[in-house]
Amino acid sequence: MFVEKLKKHAEAQWVIEPFDRMRVPVTVFADDELIREMDEQVYRQAANVAALPGIVKASCAMADAHWGYGFPIGGVAAFDPDAGGIISAGGVGFDIACGVRALRTGLTYDQIQGKEKELADVLAKRIPAGVGSEGKLRLSSLEMDEMLTGGAVWAVEQGYGTRNDLKYIEENGRMPGAEPRYVSDRAKQRQVKQVGTLGSGNHYLEIQRVAAVYDEGIARVFGLGLNDITVMIHCGSRGLGHQIATDYAPKMIKAAKEHGLELADRELACAPIKSDVGRQYYGAMCTGVNCALANRQVLTHLTREAFAKLFSQADLTLLYDVSHNTCKVEEHEIDGKRKKLYVHRKGATRAFGPGHATLAADLLPVGQPVLIGGTMGTASYILAGTEEGMNLAFGSCCHGAGRAMSRSQATKRWHGKDVVKHLAQKGIVIRGASMRGIAEEAPGAYKDVTVVVDATEKAGLAKKVARLEPLICVKG
Amino acid sequence: MAAHWEHFSHPADIGIRGFGPTREEAFAQAALALTAVIVDLEKVRPSEAVDIVCREDDDEMLFMNWLSSLLYEMGTRNMLFRRFEIEPVAGGVRARAWGEPVDAEKHKPAVEVKAATYAGLKVEKDSDGNWLAQCIVDV
Predict the structure, then answer these.
(1) In CATH, what number is assigned to the domain containing residue A244?
(2) Do B72 and A190 touch (CB under 8 A)?
(3) What is the rounded average pLDDT of the residues A124-135?
(4) Which of A118, A170, A231, B91 could form a disulfide with B55 if both were Cys (CB 3.0 to 4.6 A apart)?
(5) What angle do CA B132, B134, B136 make, to 5 degrees?
């Protein structure tokens, strides 16, 4: 039904004009190939989002979109608080502020060549990863609340990293509006042993080599050159974030009913931004963001320690830290007017263009670095936000390759041992606890990240800067 | 129908499903399906017990509460559960979950379950009186 209504609007931009209960169009930023393979559920879910009160401009789906909970993964939707706009926990996701952090190392490939296995072992030993792993910090309840309001700023104050790191994190490392009092004791309990842990599933820490540079000028500003060694860390807010999402889902279902909101899907549960539940969720969600930022800051510290053990010349500096499961209050221009909007990005990355006030001085002329994690076997990309993207999709773009098949299909098709062997033949060292986990994350289980990134660039949402290829992948 | 559990497909995550002659048995089977997402069941020894009580207005919310409570206990105690004794109480269920602490070497956990979702949520009794309880979990 939805596929027939999809019309090509521009290069890598497809639109479903509003029909039925939709208040705004659905816009899909993908090229012909991705559209051909797109899961139809994406259109249905994006159309459901387009029917929510207070939605502004369009319900967007990114190039890597796939079926999610309520909102499609790879979905972006902005709501006007003054027009009865809603906030939805489903529009943020179960892993609040899951995101990616990229570090430069000051090393080049020839300096680590031959030492990959050694480095992999040191990292696997020092970075707590996987189910049951525990972080080294133990926070009192007061310290927990300080972490939840302070984020990466708190972590730096505790000795994890430097103040200079903070300039290269969204919100300068500390999400304002965090309210620990709206976070349950259960959520805080789940986090007690998990501060500074990597998690499991599609979370990872990767050591990479810059294999290609597409824009020399921007790459220079980002401090990237061919054969540089970089680190990417992909993880989120751990147990606390998952519990916040779990806690607020039934509250939002109740609130939606009380406010007469008809939901096509329980996972679309939401509350008006200007309601008690809406305000409480926002305050709790902000603590989730801070939790993820603190987590990645601690992991950065552990990574620096690991490198220092083997490479005395290493100097790990933060390129940028992006989150791709958030709801942020941002000002955007709508019909010539500046409006304050609640922008939900679920499995979508913020990609602010050049000149955006929130960017550090050195990044201002070129735009926000956008970090797109690929699979263990392919590549990751670094892009830069564009001004065009600000108008097209509230300064947002894809977040990764997006899954192309289910976990059960992946484990039927591949054995973890074979995946590890195949990747080893390509020179990639994998460290992971479970062979089944590795099979579920097999590169073939994902869309082609290069196709996703190229489509994103074609759509004008972000510009390719560099391609990074994995050398070591540590998984939980 | 004998009580049993199964997984069902989802593009990014995984569905868990429990069948049983009673609602409580279906819940117990679904909990086994939940553990099986993470680890091979035979590897988990049911040596320590944790008590859980849940109360909700309807069967589906009760099922969600049951799964969320299990995930909470698993997350905070770093345990995996292998055996469940569940009985109905006024307004809900009372359960004892048996398992052991996570041992990465022995269990080799495949993924972490982040949460139970409302996607695919169903708790119902068929015409033969057999119960089914299912939902998709986010990993």
Answers:
(1) 3.90.1860.10
(2) yes
(3) 93
(4) B91
(5) 170
